[in-house]
Amino acid sequence: MFLECSEELLVLLRDHTDWKGEGEKSEAQVPPKGAFLFNCEEAKRAPLAISRGLGDLCDLAAASRVVVTTVDNGFFANWLQVLDARLFAGEAAAVEPAWVLTGSEREFNYGEAGDDVFAGLFEALTPEPASASATGVCAEPH
């Protein structure tokens, strides 16, 4: 679900792809003038990846239950996955983080294999009974 920079990516593809296969690819973050970041085959795959991301969002919006597993990245990358899922899922959809470690993680290694990191860090919210919830404050006039 990394669509935030898709427009910028398309501009980079347009301006820094070796469409004819004649140049040398640059590994620099900001390529020198005339250098290329992508070869033609890499550039051809990028729009499909963006389109696949849009398809995933459509599936997410229609799902009644969304399970968010870990990506082998830091804590906040995984947290953002949960927030993205909640944002794009339907209003009635259940979003369930399942951050269960496999033991092969290099970056997201906050426990032992089999540990559910999310459940260890956060408590599930349960709705209060209707009789216990406040509906507002009402003051009696003097």
What does this structure look like?
- The protein is α/β, with parallel strands linked by helices.
- The chain has four helices and four strands.
- The strands form two sheets. The protein has a two-stranded parallel ribbon with strand order 1-2.
- Helix 1 runs antiparallel to helix 2 (40-62).
- It is elongated and about 65 Å long.
- The mean pLDDT is 81.
Looking at this protein, list some descriptive labels.
two-stranded parallel sheet; elongated; two-stranded parallel ribbon; alpha/beta; 10% strand
Q: Spatial order of the strands in the main sheet?
A: 1-2
Helical region count?
Answer: 4
- What is the helix/strand order? HEEHEHEH
Name the average pLDDT: 81
Q: Structural class of the helices, strands and pairings?
A: alpha/beta
Strand content: 5-15%
Topology:
Elements: H1 6-15, E1 17-18, E2 38-39, H2 40-62, E3 65-69, H3 75-88, E4 94-98, H4 117-121
Parallel strand pairs: 1-2, 3-4
Outline of the structure:
It contains four helices and four strands; from the N terminus they run αββαβαβα. With 142 residues, it is an alpha/beta fold.
